[in-house]
Design goal:
single chain; 103 residues; mainly alpha; Multidrug-efflux Transporter Regulator, Chain: A, Domain 2; 70% helix
Length: 103
């Protein structure tokens, strides 16, 4: 199934920001929308959620864009670590179950 993609105008409306803010976020490396063959920015639902997260950090918490970058990097690392922990937990439970069966 093809994911829905939105132009910068629609993405900005959905996130409650000006299009120029999205361009600035992209220049700062905070978002990375896909591009069409005609070089048009195409935003996914996940991109829009990320934009909303950035907006909350800036508007509600007063975080500057450099701080947003650090927070997003740490958040990404935390999610990767959680996924690894989940996989290792499943493997451990599986090994413990197999060991129980061997007894």
């Amino acid at each position: 199934m093809t994911k829905q993609r939105y132009t910068i105008r629609i993405a900005a409306e959905q996130a409650g920001l000006h299009e120029q803010s999205l361009r600035m976020y992209e220049r700062k490396g905070l978002i990375c929308p896909q591009r069409s063959k005609g070089n048009i920015r195409l935003f996914s639902d996940e991109d829009i959620e990320q934009i909303r997260f950035i907006k909350r950090l800036v508007d509600d918490l007063g975080v500057n864009l450099a701080g947003v970058d650090v927070i997003m990097h740490m958040r990404s690392q935390l999610l990767e670590t959680q996924a690894l922990l989940d996989r290792l937990t499943v493997e451990l439970e599986k090994a413990q179950h197999e060991q129980t069966l061997e007894r």
